[in-house]
Design goal:
- The chain is α+β, with helices and mostly antiparallel strands and about 90 residues long.
- It has a single domain, classed as Dimeric alpha+beta barrel (Alpha-Beta Plaits), CATH 3.30.70.
- About 35% of the residues lie in helices and about 40% in strands.
- The chain contains 3 helices and 4 strands; from the N terminus they run βαββααβ.
- The protein is globular, with a radius of gyration of 13 Å.
- About 20% of the residues are buried.
Length: about 90
């Protein structure tokens, strides 16, 4: 099943995002469950969150994946919402 992770950064934590970006990208590559991903942008074009679409067995598996993400371990996120998602177009 596909699960969309909607992750919102804590305000003022861009430095944490930048410091952990390489580890986050390596985690995505090594786990092999990310179908698509990218940052949310604020009004000035700065990164302020993430949308990650996973192909996993369950929402619980997506929550486990999100908890092990280096961004989450570094305390970047204010919130993480995991929602089952159905791809219709694209």
């Amino acid at each position: 099943m596909r699960v969309a992770l909607i992750c919102i950064d804590k305000p003022g934590h861009l430095d944490i995002r930048k410091a952990n970006r390489d580890a986050h990208l390596a985690y995505i590559a090594e786990t092999g469950v990310v179908e698509m991903a990218g940052p949310f942008l604020d009004a000035e074009g700065g990164m302020c969150g993430s949308l990650v679409v996973l192909e996993v067995p369950s929402v619980a598996a997506a929550q486990d994946w999100a908890a092990a993400d280096p961004y989450a371990k570094a305390g970047l996120f204010q919130s993480v919402d995991a929602r089952a998602w159905k791809k219709v177009i694209g």
